[in-house]
Each structure stands twice: as C-alpha cells, then as structure tokens.
Amino acid sequence: MAEPMDYASAGVDIDLEGSAVASLIASLGRSTRQPGTPGAPVDLPGGFGGLIEFGDSLLALATDGVGSKLQIASALNQWGGVGIDCMAMNVNDLLCVGAEPIAFVDYVAVPKPDPETHAALGASLAEACRLARVTLAGGETASLPGIVTELDLSGTALGYVKKGDTITGENLKSGDVLIGLPSSGIHSNGYSLVRKVMEHTGAQYTDEAPFAVASIGRSVLRFEGQEGRPFTLGEVFLNPTKIYCDPVVDLLHACATDEVAFSIADLHGICHVTGGGLSNLLRLHDQLGWHIDAPLQPHPEFEWLQNVGGIETREMYRTFNMGCGMIIAVDAEHASDICDWLAQRLTGVAIIGSVNDAGHKVTHAIEGVEFTHY
Question: What average pLDDT score do residues 353-371 get?
C-alpha cells in the first residue's frame, strides 16, 4: 500500500466535522425559555447530552444515529443489533451527565417500506429498551424515495437527573483516577474506514473471521442459523454497541445510599468514547490533561483492521474506541472501591490512567498517541 489508510481518506474528516459543528452551534438562536422556568437551557461543558430545567430535576436529551454501520447491515440483511446501536449511542451520552435514561423515540427513513425489515428493527429496538430500561414512547417511519437510497435509523433519548447530582466535569482535578469500561467491539463509529479496509482486502462480510473472536468483557451476537459455526467478519463488525445503563445507572443509584463508601460527589466526569476516540476526554474540561498508562486490551478486530489496512496507531485511537467504550473519572480516594464495584457487574473494568495538570491534552502509554484537540 502506497500510503496508510485513515478516516479522512475514507470520506470522514473529523477535524472538518468538528469545525462544521462549531459553526452550527455558534449560529443557533438563544432559547426563548427564561432561566428558572421549565425548558430553560442549562450550561453544560462537553456536549455529551443537553440539559434543561424541569422543576426539582433537570431533563437530559440526546440524539444520534447508527451511521454507515447500517450499510453493512443492509448488505447482509441483518438488523438484529442496529436498534441496540441506536439506543446505545443516545443513552450512553445521557449517562455522561449523570442522567438516568427513561424514554426513547426512533426515526426510520427508507426508500421503500419493507414489513420484514421493519419487524426485525422493531424486535431489535424492543431488546434495546430492555437493556437500557427505557420506554419506547413513539417514533416515525418515513418513505423518502429520491432522498434516501438505504435505510437510515436514528433516535432521541430522554433522561432526568436531580439538581445537584449532575456530572459535568467541573469538579475534575489533577490526580483523579480514570476507570475504563470495555467496549463490545467497534460500536457505531469508524465504519467508513472499516468498509474501505474491506474493499482494499477483497474480503467478504460472510468470510470466517481470520482471528480469534473471544475478547474480555464482550460476547458477539450470532446471526440466526450461525450457531455452532465459525464467527464471520459480518458478525464481528455488526456486534451491537454496549449499552452502559447496566452498571452505570446502578452506580448512580448506589451513590445515593449508605450501602457504599462513595457518593455522587466522587464521580467527577464520564466520557462516552465515540467518534474521535480518546480525544473525547478533552470535552470534559478545558484545561486539565489526561494520561492513559494502562489501556484496556483492544479487541482482535482492531489489530486485524490496522494490519491489513496499514493504519497508523494514532489514527486507530483517533477513530475507534480500541476496546474502551466509556471512561469514568473519579476521586482518587475512592477509585479502588468504585472500580471493584463496577468490576463485579461488568467483566474487564479496570483503572486505566489519571487526570493531570500538564496541559490540555491526552497522552498514552503508546508513544505517538497524543491528542490536543477534539
């Protein structure tokens, strides 16, 4: 290969996307809701989820879609995991502000309705609601021939958090400890690059995965009829995004009891590792830095993609979650207790690093993996 592959050459320029989003936000009008009234906006660093006033509580909102992972699902006619992907991309963002997700609405756009496909999506969304412990409160299906050429799926999640219990990153300090929660795979980011690598190799999604699929902290969803056979690349790449309501919502509830030695005040920041990889940490604070000195083990598909695609290591950590789907920054005094509590409920949880005051950047045990902007 003449040059290493990267996300930008696959059609997604993260820096350009960030600049476009900043321009959009700058042009948005201010809320018509007055401070202190229901619906009034609440300032929130990081932007993982939006908060608005609602009496003694705050409502949290997040909206997102599955992205080009759907093109693989469409090629294989396998929809069992995409509803979970859509739910996860939304409710995981709500967790990052300390909110408990309670409801979800979906939006499906298709060039032409197909009852069989919609039934599969419905079953997937039902399972997603079970995993996230939310109500599917409604949705919309639009037939848009001429506008969409393949099925697109997105949604919006609603949550709530009591005033005073938000987790915004404002309490972060140097010395805080980072706890990593393992991902279930590639999740729902970086698929333009995945598809480009597949095109380059000539491999088919129905091919047997050329690596051992077993990995700490995850199982892989089998396609119907594949039980007992070798895992395929399609099964690995379509493995649904981890929904972290279990155990994070339970952690938030535990913090409000006398059953544990820690409290909500000991949770200083939560980062959903999505597009941009570890650079997402920079969204939590505008001055502090982050160092990952004991990263979680990446799943085997990441090593395969990097090797066959000739992708540079920094680009891998900029594009993918690399085995770590969520990071919780906690007070050092209670870090071991919180990590142990989480590890009893989710295999593979571990302390992976710390917060520092050495500049607003993310550094890593792997030389050259460093990020100074999101």
Answer: 97
